C-alpha cells in the first residue's frame, strides 16, 4: 500500500467537514476524487500536503506515518500560477532552485520540455504561452519534485473544453511514463472516468467515501468514454442526491 488515509476528521467553525474519512491508494495507482462542491476535497489534499492538520486521523506513506509538510507529496493546488516575471525554465525549476540545485533542476527540466510540449519555450515568459501550455508548465513544475505521490487539484479547471480534452489526452499518454501514484481532484465526471484507475466518490455531510469505481486494466479511449453513459448517470445521481441533502 502506497498511501493510507485513516479516520480523518476535520471541523471548520464548528461544522464537521470530513468524518472518519478512510482511503487507500496503491503504488502507481491513479485515483480520481470526485464529490459535490464544498464537500472537502481540497481540504483532504491540504492535509496530505501538510498545510492543514486534521482534528484526528493519520496518514501513512509506505506504512510510515507522515506529519506536516513531507517530501513524499508533490502538490499542484487549484490555480497554480506561474510567476509572470520569470521564464518558463525558471518557473518550472523553482523548487530545485530554492533547494540550491539549479543546475540539476535545469538539466532534469530540459529533458522533459519535449514531453510536456514546451520545447522552444524555455526562455519565453508565461504570457507568451497558451492557457494549455501554461497549465502544462505548472504541471511540469509539480512533476519535477522528487516526490512519489502527486496531488492534483483541478489541474485543468480553468481551461476551455477543447484545450481541456487535449490536456486529458496528453495526460493519459503521459501517465505510464510518469509512473507516479496520483490523486486527482476533479468536478468533471468524464475526466475522472477517462484518466483514473479508480474513482472515489465523496458524499454526505460530513463527507466520507460513498462509492468506489474500479477501472483498473480498462483500455481507455474517447470511444470507450462515450459509451459509459451508465457509469456517468450513476455518478451524477450520487452527486445530485448528496447535493439535495
Ligand atoms: N480554512 C477554512 N476555514 C473555514 N472553512 C473552510 C476552510 N477551508 C475550507 N473551508 C470550508 O470547508 C468546506 C470544504 O472546502 P473544500 O475547499 O475542501 O471543498 P471542495 O470539495 O474542494 O470544494 P470545491 O469542489 O468547490 O473546490 C467548504 O464549506 C469550505 O467553505
UniProtKB/TrEMBL annotation:
<keyword id="KW-0547">Nucleotide-binding</keyword>
<keyword id="KW-0067">ATP-binding</keyword>
<dbReference type="InterPro" id="IPR017871">
    <property type="entry name" value="ABC_transporter-like_CS"/>
</dbReference>
<dbReference type="InterPro" id="IPR027417">
    <property type="entry name" value="P-loop_NTPase"/>
</dbReference>
<feature type="domain" description="ABC transporter">
    <location>
        <begin position="3"/>
        <end position="229"/>
    </location>
</feature>
<keyword id="KW-0813">Transport</keyword>
<dbReference type="GO" id="GO:0016887">
    <property type="term" value="F:ATP hydrolysis activity"/>
</dbReference>
<protein>
    <recommendedName>
        <fullName>ABC transporter domain-containing protein</fullName>
    </recommendedName>
</protein>
<dbReference type="InterPro" id="IPR050166">
    <property type="entry name" value="ABC_transporter_ATP-bind"/>
</dbReference>
<dbReference type="Pfam" id="PF00005">
    <property type="entry name" value="ABC_tran"/>
</dbReference>
<dbReference type="InterPro" id="IPR003439">
    <property type="entry name" value="ABC_transporter-like_ATP-bd"/>
</dbReference>
<dbReference type="InterPro" id="IPR003593">
    <property type="entry name" value="AAA+_ATPase"/>
</dbReference>
<dbReference type="GO" id="GO:0005524">
    <property type="term" value="F:ATP binding"/>
</dbReference>
Amino acid at each position: 500500500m502506497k498511501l493510507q488515509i485513516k479516520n480523518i476528521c476535520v471541523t471548520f467553525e464548528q461544522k464537521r467537514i470530513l468524518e472518519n474519512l478512510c482511503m487507500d491508494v496503491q503504488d502507481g495507482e491513479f485515483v480520481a476524487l470526485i464529490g459535490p462542491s464544498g464537500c472537502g476535497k481540497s481540504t483532504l489534499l491540504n492535509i496530505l500536503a501538510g498545510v492543514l492538520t486534521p482534528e484526528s486521523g493519520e496518514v501513512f506513506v509506505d506504512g510510515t506515518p507522515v506529519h506536516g509538510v513531507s517530501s513524499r507529496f508533490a502538490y499542484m493546488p487549484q490555480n497554480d500560477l506561474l510567476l509572470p516575471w520569470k521564464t518558463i525554465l525558471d518557473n518550472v525549476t523553482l523548487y530545485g532552485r530554492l533547494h540550491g540545485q539549479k543546475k540539476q533542476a535545469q538539466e532534469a527540466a530540459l529533458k522533459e520540455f519535449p514531453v510536456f510540449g514546451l520545447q522552444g519555450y524555455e526562455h519565453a515568459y508565461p504570457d507568451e504561452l497558451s492557457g494549455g501550455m501554461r497549465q502544462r508548465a505548472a504541471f511540469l513544475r509539480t512533476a519535477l519534485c522528487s516526490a512519489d505521490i502527486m496531488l492534483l487539484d483541478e489541474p485543468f479547471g480553468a481551461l476551455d473544453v477543447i484545450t481541456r480534452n487535449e490536456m486529458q489526452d496528453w495526460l493519459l499518454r503521459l501517465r505510464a511514463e510518469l509512473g507516479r501514484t496520483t490523486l486527482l481532484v476533479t468536478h468533471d465526471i468524464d475526466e475522472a472516468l477517462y484518466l483514473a484507475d479508480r474513482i472515489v466518490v465523496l458524499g454526505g455531510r460530513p463527507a466520507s467515501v460513498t462509492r468506489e469505481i474500479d477501472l483498473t486494466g480498462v483500455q481507455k479511449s474517447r470511444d470507450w468514454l462515450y459509451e459509459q453513459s451508465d457509469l456517468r448517470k450513476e455518478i451524477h445521481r450520487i452527486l445530485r442526491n448528496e447535493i439535495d441533502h
